[in-house]
Amino acid sequence: MTSAYKNARPVISATGLFTPADSISNDELVESFNAYVAQHNAQHAAAIDAGDVIALQPSSVEFIEKASGIKARKVLSKASILDIDVMCPRFDERPNDELSVLAEIGVAAARDALARAGRDAKDVDAVLVACSNLQRAYPAIAIEVQDALGIEGFGFDMNVACSSATFGIQTAADFIRAGNARSVLVVSPEICSGHLNWRDRDSHFIFGDVATAVLVEDADLAPAQHWDILGTQLKTRFSNNIRNNFGFLNRTAPESRDDADKLFVQEGRKVFKEVVPMVGELITDHIARLGLAPADLRRLWLHQANAGMNRLIAQRVLGHEASEDESPTVLDSYANTSSAGSIIAFHLHNEDLKPGDTGLICSFGAGYSAGSVVVRKVG
After folding, report:
1. Range of the domain at 364
2. pTM: predicted TM-score of the whole model, two decimal places
3. What is the pLDDT of residues 223-258, one digit of tens each?
4. To the nearest whole number, what is the mean pLDDT of the chain?
5. CATH code of the domain containing 367
6. Is residue 236, in this structure, part of any structural domain at all?
7. Quick check: is 64 in a domain?
8. Which of 21, 110, 301, 361 has its CA 20 to 30 A from that of 226?
């Protein structure tokens, strides 16, 4: 794009969503997990009695819902996750000339966003795949999505864990302000089930699979009904409390090394204690910088990680406990979908807002990272 567009004003023209057909309820998940626990404890009974192995503890629906607020999760590979001899997603390996799984669900979400905006793929200048769980290092999934949609221009992948989508929105908005693009797709395909340890009682219930897309464009291109981006604000602070050490360098490690940390691990209590004030401060600082008061926020679309975290963050921002109308939840049916969570909440819960209503899209997660996007409805 040329400098002729340097005075462009970025807006959100539309969002898109891909939801897997299969869902795992807490009842199903607990039945499978407890069967695995019983099998493990039986197989290691002598070692457990001798004190050499610690007996695994069963899970329960009550424990899961109290700890997280999650009641079910959407997944792409249900049968293998519930199979106690597998307990992880299984996909047939695809040849290099076939669309990858991550690109496939990303394309589906992108097409939904384009259709809602009445936009043709040829009108898009760039694709950013912003997510936690990239299928491969290269070639970029974004370029694969770009090719599948028939988009000219450029694409690249970015990973800021659960904050990837909001960081992607700011990046897209900056491209538009700078005149480097007029229409950008921010795609967040998340197959979180692949990096979850389904045998860990403290986290086996957390994640689900999904894909979202956000079409960020110059206001001159946008449909009559869109969302002005009033401002964005990002923050990162290093922490080991949420970690995933999976990577190609692991192949050089001794085979005897414990591989539990190659999947999702977290120190949940520390995360809760440290992230809630960090995100509350980020939001209050951001809206103040934009000349807004908490009462000006009609709705908060928060990252869907934990019901208790969302409740406390909303309370810190609004000064009172938020109603479901003020801070809608999709966590109960989608579970934590990493970077896609706040976008799902926005996608499913914005149609009832009126022109002039202002809201906040906010994500937070590993890094620590947090992103805030303040939007106002137009049309």
Report:
1. 227-378
2. 0.94
3. 999 999 999 999 999 999 998 888 888 766 665 556
4. 94
5. 3.40.47.10
6. yes
7. no
8. 21
Active-site option among 131, 162, 192, 362:
162
Catalytic site includes residue 162: yes
Residue type (1 letter), 138: Y
Q: Which of 194, 213, 217, 215 is nearest to 106 (CA)?
A: 213
Q: What amino acid is encoded at 242 in this protein?
A: I
Structure tokens at 269: 């209590």
For residue 291, what are its two tokens? 């000349």
Domain-located, residue 23 = no
Report yes or no on 295 lying in a domain.
yes
